[in-house]
Amino acid sequence: MERNKQIKNRIIAVLFALFVWQLAAMCIDQKILLVSPVEVLKRMTTIWQVENFWKTIWFSFYHIAGGFLLALMLGTILAALAGRFPWVETMLWPFMVTVKSVPVASFVVICLIWLSAQNLAVFISFLIVLPVVYGNVLQGIKSEDKNMLEVGQVFSMPYLRRLAYIHLPQLKPFILSACSTALGMAWKAGVAAEIIGIPDGSIGKQLYFAKIYLDTDDLLCWTVIIVIISVLFEKLFMLLLKCGYRRLERG
Q: How far apart are CA 58 and CA 202, in angstroms?
């Protein structure tokens, strides 16, 4: 019942946002500056006919998703090492602070010197997500119940069983929080990298040329597509993660 009410409230909020958008477009009355949601919706019905439309979506998706997954794995490993060895946390501290503080655009420009534009989104998504995952998982490790850890040691539980039944359940809220936050950041950073690097066959390139040619319909249409893909990927990934935890809890 509560969930149905929440869904209803969100639908009302979306409709209100669309109404404000439509009202703003009518008041401005300049398509170059702002097109209405109705016009964007019309363009959505035809944009899939653009040459290599699906290849463009796949190109950006697997680069950004790949960067996110790499950061999730490495961030978790580094956090585990930092939780076990304090000197590792100390050595990693300046790197994590730097990555969190430096603007994405600066990293993109610097990385273009080292990497090809085709692989830029992977590295930038990885770079932005890494400190988020690392910080959350490390906080979770530091918050673990020491009594539970001692029980595992007393009964000489194998490492994999301790990981599955002691560590992962306690880290659940921290991992879920990290993934929920990092997924959106990965798409923002990845697409921003594509807009600057302009790799062939990417959504970022489509956005860049839509801006150059003042094609506001396509600009907003591709933006809506990014939002849809990002939300769907986040929902699917979080669902799979929660399903994995449910299977783990059932033993």
A: 8
d(CA 86, CA 91): 9
* Phi, then psi, of 25 in degrees rounded to 5: -65, -40
| Gap between the Cα atoms of 195 and 192, Å rounded | 5
- DSSP assigned state of 152: H
> Contact, 198 vs 209, CB < 8 A?
no
User: Terminus-to-terminus CA distance in the chain, angstroms?
Assistant: 30
**For residue range 117-144, what is the model confidence (pLDDT) as tens digits?**
888 899 999 999 999 999 999 998 888 7
User: Given this model, what pLDDT does residue 82 score?
Assistant: 92
pTM for this entry? 0.87
Cα R_g (the chain), whole angstroms: 22
CA dist 167 and 128 (Å) reads 25
**What integer pLDDT is reported at residue 155 of this predicted model?**
57
Write out pLDDT tens, residues 56-67: 999 999 999 999
pLDDT of the residue at 145: 66
